[in-house]
Structures are given as structure tokens and as C-alpha cells.
Amino acid sequence: MSLMFSGIGVSRGLAIGEIHVLRRDGINVEARELEKSEVTDEVRRLRRAIKAARAQLHATRDSIPKDAPSDVSAFIDSHLLMLDDNALAQTPIDIIKAERINAEAALKQQQQALVSVFEAMDDAYIATRIDDVNQVISLIQQTLSGGVDPLVDSDTWKGRIVVADDLTPADTIIMQNHGVAGFVTEQGGQLSHTAILARSLGIPAVVGLHKVRTYLKSGEVVTLNGNSGLLIADPTEEHISQIKLQQREARKAARELSSLIDQASVTQDGVELGLWANIEVDDDVKALKRVNANGVGLFRTEFMFMNREDAPTEQEHFKEYSKILRALKGAPLTIRTIDLGSDKMTQSMHEEGPLAHNPAMGLRGIRLALAELALFVPQLRAILRASAKGPVRILIPMLTNRAEIRQVRALLEEVKAALDEEGIAYDPDIQLGGMIEVPAAAIAASAFAEELDFLSIGTNDLIQYTLAIDRIDDQVHYLYDPLHPAVLQLIRSVIQAGRDADIPVTLCGEMAGDPDVVRVLLALGLTEFSMPPKLLLAVKQVLIQSKVSRLKPLGQKLINAADVEGQQHVLKLMNKTLEPKAEKKKTSAKTRTRKTNA
Ligand code: PEP
Ligand code: MG
Question: In this predicted model, what pLDDT tens digit does every residue of 398-438 receive, in sequence order?
């Protein structure tokens, strides 16, 4: 009889295969008192175990495929950094010496201490750090016990679906190298590093299936649906054929999408579109090139500040921007100045604890940049220097009032004057744009437009602030509604403000990369979309099959819709295909079943 389990689909895709149930969570730690003479040997034993854990992580890091996204190695690096941190490399040694207990017990004690510190901080990002602490300590415990990790050991997993208590980012890479078809964990959530990695590597994955291993045994056949979060054990022949059919359709859809790469980005009624890429590291330019994006609509520079103790120097900024410009070969690069704070914290910000009681409303984005000129000025100098090497635009995050624009402009003039004195080249006409992501800025967009060269709507934050819901708080995620009439009206008025001032308006929040809602944006008058490169072709497919003249009246209907049902009805009308009748049914079915995960 088939058994169905429902969890959280964190990485899209379908898999059919035998499962391998991984059981390695039961390392039993027994405390043992040491004789005084044993202490030195025990400290050595722990040091050796940490060294072995480090070697294991390095080996995993070396096995990352060359074309894997760079965040893949960043996760392993963060575990390597933890191994070097005194909290793991030194404190357990101090405990062994002070309390004369064995290494396993000392590690466990320190694990409990670290976890309770993190638990006291009520923050979704910190919660993922608890996973990291547990994962790194369990790796050391494993090497202490002399056991061989069953994951590293296995070479017979090709095509299997791994079912585990929890998995580390390193495990995800090892599984990819073994060719596993998908994985399931009892723990974990959307934001866990393992989930992010699974998405980057394209491994179908479902997490949060509590106690699922109680019901399953290795060798059983299951189907895994990373889109819906469903795992079906002992599936019927009919269900397997259905999944196989869906897999074939997904492969066909991917092939169809790649045929769009060189097609013009124009709607059916001749409206020209700009399709831009959001990037986070220089390596992302490769993905941008693969889909032939217009250029970079948003470079989030915060990543340059992550996983390091100090801030990047002017020269480091300059090198990074120059590298991206070389790779872009003449396509424009929009560099967003540091948007640190709130959900984008550096390591040192985390170590100092939360910045404010309510960091999303605190010193973040341009507020922090203007308060910390030692961080901001080197970046501005580097951006200006890079502008001599290719087309660069500056984008300011989290604008709230016009005074901030003026302060940035004044600072830019000072930096330009200093560069002139030093005889350093830059683009004197470099464009300055502003992120519109605070409701006040959206409402006053016409005033902002007078002082800026372009606008970029950041719907991720605009939705958060308009609806007063923390964008990373799972408990209120159900309220995160991009189609809320207030949000739609704000977006429409910003687009209109840009049009009145004759300056371009781009939208670079998640909405621009969601094929289900991009026609809504088109209806509101948007023509410039910036999104993660891997979503660009799916968005392009929808947009170039649209007619703006047909969508416009529906945009107003959507804003006026009285309830969710009414909204869904209008959305369905908007997403109706423009293909001839015979094709109609097929495409609308596809639209109905699509659901975003990440
Ligand atoms: C946004 O807020 O929509 C945006 C693009 O910026 P970020 O997601 O980096 O805050
Ligand atoms: Mg934002």
C-alpha cells in the first residue's frame, strides 16, 4: 500500500528511485573522568580529530565541480572557519584541562553552551547557525569515534534518494558527486544552508519530514516531489508513470526555454522589454551570459563583506567590479552600494549581537553607509574608478528621504574631486539611481525621481514594510502577499513617477522572477525586469507571449478585487495563454500547477 508523507519542498524537481536510509545521528557521548596523566593525550586526541575533520572538509571542497555556483564553496568555507574558531578549537580543550573529562564530553558541553546562546537570539538567520554548530561538532565527534562517514564511504548511491535525520552542506556536495537523485531530511527548513545548496545544485529535496525514517527502510522505491514537498513510498504503477511523464515534460520545457535565448524581448504588441540579471558574486556573470541578459540590474555587494572579519579595501572592491565589467564585455553593471544590516549581517555584526531591537527599521542600507563612511567612501571610490572601464550605474538601497540622495551626491562630488586631484579616470556622468523599497519613498517617488537618474523597485522590502511583516519570519509568511492592492498601487505609482520624469524604472525584487506574476507587472506598466539569471528564460517566455493592451484593464481589476478568490480569478485571466485554442488547455494547466519554492 502506498504511503504519502508531506514536508517542505525546498528544491524543485522530481525523482523516482530506491531510498537509502542514513542513520548516523546516534553517536553516543559518554562522559569519562580522566586521570591527570591522561589530560595531555586527550587534548592531542581532540586536536587530531579537528585536523581530520578539517581535512575531510577540504577534500569535499576540492571535489566541488568547477561550474558549481560560488555559494557552494562558501558554505564549506563557513564550516572550515568554525573549526578554526576558538569556540571550537580552544574552549573544549580548556574544558578538558579544567574539568578533566574526555574530549567527547567536553565538546558536548561546549555544543550545549553555544546552542543556548544562539537560541536566546530570536532570529531566523541565527537559527541556521545552530544547524552549523551541530553539524560541525557532529563531524568532530564522528572523527573522534574513529567511524567512517557512511556518506563519504558510499559509491553505490547513483540514482538513489537519501533519507536522513539532517544533512550538512558538505553532505549535499558529496551526494551530488555520487549522483544521488534527491534527498529527504527529517529536520531543516527553507532557509537552511543545505536547502539553499540543493537549489543551487539542482537536487530535488524535501525537508521537515519528521520521523519519516521510522516508516521507511533502505531499498524501498519512492517518488519525491521537490515542488510539492510530497514523498510517496511504495507508489502505484500509475503514479510512477505520472511522475515519469512530468519528468519528460520538465525536460521538454527546459529545451524549449533554451530556444528563447536569442529571441528579441518584445511583447506580442511590440512593447520592448529589458531583461536584466541580479547577481551576488562575480561568478554569476557566467549564468547571465548563458541567458543573454541585457546586463546587471542589481549587483548585491554585501556578499563581498560576508565570511570575513574586516571590510573589503577600495582595491578589493575595484578588482571585483573590474572583473565583472571584463566578463560583461560592454553590458551595463548596476552596483548597489552596501545594503548591510537587518537580514544581511556580516560576521562581525553577528558577533557583536543584533544591531538594534528592530534591525529591519534600524541602521541599515544607506543609513548605515552614511553613518560608516569608512565603509562607504572606499566603495564609492572603487565604483567611480571602475566606471572608467565600462558602463557602471550606482544604486542606493533603502532610500527614505531626499536628504539621503543629496548627501550621497555631495559625497560623490567629494570623491570625484579627490580622484581628479590624483589624476585617476572615472565616468563624470555616472548615473545615480535609488532603490524604492520603503513605502515613504514609493509614495513620494515623483519627488525622488526629480533627483535621480533611474529608479529600481525592491519589492522584497517594499512588501515587508508595506504589510508590516518580517520577510524572514516563517510565522507570518502566509501574509507575505505580492498581490496585495496596497503593494500593487505603490508599484504602479512608482512606474508612473518614473515615466513622468522620463527616467527608467526597473523592478529587481523576487516578483520580477516569478513567471506567475510578471504579467501583473506588465499590466502596471513595467518594462524593465531584473531577476536571478536562472529564472530569466521562464519569465521571458511568459512576457513575450503577452499583450500589454489586453493586460492593462486587468491590472486595475486585480487591484479592485474584493478577496483572494476574485484576485485569483483575475490572475488566471491574465495568465491565460495567447496561443491558438488547441494549445490553450495545455499551457493553462502548466500555469495552474506551478508553485514557487525558493
Ligand atoms: C528588494 O528588497 O526587493 C531587493 C531587491 O533587495 P534585497 O532583497 O537585497 O533586500
Ligand atoms: Mg531590499
Answer: 999 999 999 999 999 999 999 999 999 999 999 999 999 99
In single-letter form, the type of residue at position 196 comes to I
- CATH assignment of the domain containing 393: 3.20.20.60
Residue nearest (by alpha carbon) to ligand 1 atom 3: 458
Ligand 1 centroid, distance to 367 Cα (angstroms): 15
Q: How far is CA 318 from the centre of its chain?
A: 24
Q: Do residues 155 and 140 both lie within one domain?
A: no
Q: Is residue 225 within a helix (H) or strand (E), and if so which, with residue range?
A: strand 221-225
Q: Please check whether residues 161 and 136 belong to one and the same domain.
A: no
What are the strands, taking DSSP E only, across 379-500?
392-396, 431-436, 454-457
Q: Ligand 1: which of 336, 396, 437 to mutate, judged by most atoms within 8 Å of the beta carbon?
A: 437
Instruction: Return the CATH number at 64.
Output: 1.10.274.10
Distance CA(257)–CA(267), nearest Å, equals 16
Angle at 399 between CA 393 and CA 404, to 5 degrees: 90
Pocket lined around ligand 1, Cβ cut-off 6 Å: 298, 300, 339, 437, 458-461, 508-509
129: Cβ–Cβ under 8 A, 6 or more apart, which residues? 118, 350
**Cα angle at 347 between 344 and 350, to 5 degrees?**
75
**CATH code assigned at 156:** 3.50.30.10
Total count of domains within the chain:
3
Q: Does residue 472 sit in helix, strand or coil?
A: coil
**C-beta neighbour count of 461 within 10 angstroms:** 24
CA 316 to centroid of ligand 1, rounded, Å: 23
SS3 256: helix
Q: pLDDT tens-digit profile of 495-526?
A: 999 999 999 999 999 899 989 999 999 999 99
Q: Of 515, 564, 586, nearest to 12 (Cα)?
A: 515
- For helices 548-560 and 564-574, what crossing angle results, to 10°? 180
Assign 124 a pLDDT band (cuts: 50, 70, 90).
low
Active site residues: 193, 508
Pocket test for ligand 1, best of 460, 462, 471, 510 (most atoms within 8 A of CB): 460
For residue 122, the tally of other CB atoms under 10 A from its CB is 9
